[in-house]
Design brief:
It is built from 20 helices and 13 strands. The chain is 46% helix and 12% strand. It is an alpha/beta fold. A 5-stranded parallel β-sheet has the order 5-2-1-6-9, sandwiched between helices. The termini are far apart. Bound molecules: D-mannonic acid. The site of D-mannonic acid has 10 residues, from helix 10 and helix 14.
């Protein structure tokens, strides 16, 4: 990045008019506290919110909160008056928009009092979240609070100085009995609002049963489906942004032009006019949420594990492989789409084709390794629920099972070409221990991992048909490698029997 260029900041805005989302934004007060200030939020909800303010006004400025003790984003944004660039890349080209919706940035572990004060400010009417699956401190077996989670245990003893997300929410909500904010989950979980409601109600109840009852009765937790492919920032992205805008941005966000947001219209104290700028406000999000989780995230994870093993570094490289294309196309058409209960207006085939196009975007360079993280939390909503439904329907699920097998082989920490990599997962220590203990023996690997009830529901783990499919897939990955298996399962061979 050329250092002779000026740094992005308020002083540069007059020269950046053509890169703004609209005209004057004014100085909106903070109406939203967002927990989990990562790239995804900055390219998705923050953009919708700024556009909604530009279209219909309202004090919906955002206070972005970093939940982990990582002050780098705060530092980068502070040096540029909390402005940042979103680089949208498609086949047709690239463009940059400078976003102004974020008004303040806080780092929770370092600024706890400020974060809680901001959440307690009555002008804040929404607290939204992108804290990834692991931020919810939930137990996949019960879809409720994981009472064994260290941060939860800490918070139950110290509710005024919380560490966990439910802890922060309840510490703020308990002071707002007359005017609770709406809690808006924007993470890739099935029934995200319901899971968040469960953990928050259970946590509040454990502190004070009466408080739990009040949260259950008075606080709204709408479900949402969020979608935009947003890879990590690289120096190449920084250079492109600098070239297009003439300004240096330390932390621009790359993304595709496609975006979607389906929101359950259930807000206690108002919301930005998101519907005016393309969001869908509906009564029931679940069908959209499941469609996206299973079709997009399910195939993303499939490409991630097969990709890392088979040497596809990015999603576009993976989907450019004709066998991978056939495999993913067939998986969506034959095994995933039939499980969806979507409105008549939702065209499954068109949705699939659009996803395949999005994956092929050569400018995103979305790393398979990035998507491969946190598999212990991603597998259940993305793949295992679909498999369970296919089993119940007496229908085939071989390709879905190949994805699970690929995750298991991925845990051995070596690609087919012999490259080693680290496992990034909250359960990494346990998963790596089990993988190593198996010594690569497929039967041991499957038995050890299927025994993890936090990931595999016992009914699925003990299902004879599923176990048999899994062994076939593991054997295939072992004997033919990921590439050979992709080719094998892409064809009708994957469907036989
Ligand atoms: C991806 C998602 O990293 C991942 O696990 O599957 O981040 C995906 O890109 C988004 O959900 C797309 O909306």
């Amino acid at each position: 990045m050329s250092t002779s260029l000026p740094r992005l900041g308020a002083a540069q805005l007059p020269a950046l008019q053509s890169h703004l989302l609209g005209g004057a934004l004014g100085e909106p007060a903070i109406g939203i506290v967002h927990l989990g200030l990562g790239n995804f939020h900055r390219a998705h909800q923050a953009v919708y919110t700024e556009q909604a303010m530009l279209a219909a006004g309202g004090d919906w400025g955002i206070c972005g909160v970093t939940v982990l003790d990582e002050p780098a984003m705060q530092q980068a944004l502070a040096e540029q008056d909390n402005l940042y660039s979103v680089l949208t890349s498609d086949r047709d080209g690239q463009q940059v928009q400078v976003v102004r919706a974020i008004r303040k940035v806080l780092v929770a572990p370092r600024q706890q009092a400020e974060v809680l004060a901001q959440m307690r400010d009555p002008r804040v009417r929404i607290v939204s979240l992108t804290v990834t699956e692991k931020g919810y401190c939930y137990d996949a077996k019960t879809n409720g609070l994981d009472f064994k989670h260290p941060a939860v245990q800490h918070d139950l003893l110290n509710p005024d100085t919380p560490k966990s997300v439910p802890g922060y929410l309840v510490a703020a909500l308990r002071t707002r009995r007359d005017n609770p904010f709406t809690v808006l989950s924007c993470d890739n979980l099935a029934h995200n609002g319901k899971i968040l409601r469960n953990v928050v109600v259970q946590y509040a109840h454990a502190i004070d049963p009466e408080l739990g009852k009040w949260v259950a009765e008075s606080v709204r937790f709408p479900c949402t489906m969020v979608d935009r492919i947003v890879p990590a920032t690289t120096d190449e992205i920084r250079d492109i942004v600098a070239r297009i805008t003439g300004c240096r941005d330390a932390w621009p966000v790359p993304g595709e032009s496609f975006r979607q947001w389906v929101i359950e219209d259930n807000f206690a104290a108002g919301r930005p006019a998101w519907e005016k700028v393309g969001a869908m406000l509906v009564d029931d999000v679940i069908p959209y949420e499941l469609a996206k989780l299973r079709m997009l995230n399910g195939t993303h994870s499939t490409m991630a594990y097969l990709g890392v093993l088979g040497g596809f570094e990015t999603v576009d490289q993976a989907i450019a492989d004709p066998d991978m294309y056939k495999l993913i196309h067939a998986m969506m058409t034959e095994e995933i789409a039939p499980t969806l209960t979507v409105p008549d207006s939702f065209d499954r085939a068109a949705y699939r084709d659009q996803l395949l196009m999005r994956y092929a975007n050569p400018n995103l360079k979305h790393k398979t390794m990035q998507i491969a993280s946190d598999g212990s939390l991603k597998l259940p909503p993305r793949l295992l629920g679909t498999i369970a439904e296919r089993i119940a329907a007496g229908a085939s699920y071989r390709r879905l099972t190949l994805a699970v097998a690929a995750w298991m082989r991925f845990l051995l920490g070596r690609s087919d070409a012999g490259l080693s990599y680290a496992i990034n997962d909250p359960m990494a220590a346990k998963l790596t221990e089990l993988a190593n203990l198996s010594g690569g023996d497929n039967m041991c690997l499957a038995n050890f991992l299927l025994g993890l009830e936090d990931i595999f529901p016992p009914a699925l783990a003990s299902h004879a048909g599923f176990r048999a499919e899994l062994m076939l897939a593991l054997t295939s990955l072992d004997r033919q490698g990921a590439r050979g298996s992709i080719a094998h399962y892409a064809g009708t061979a994957g469907l036989a029997g």
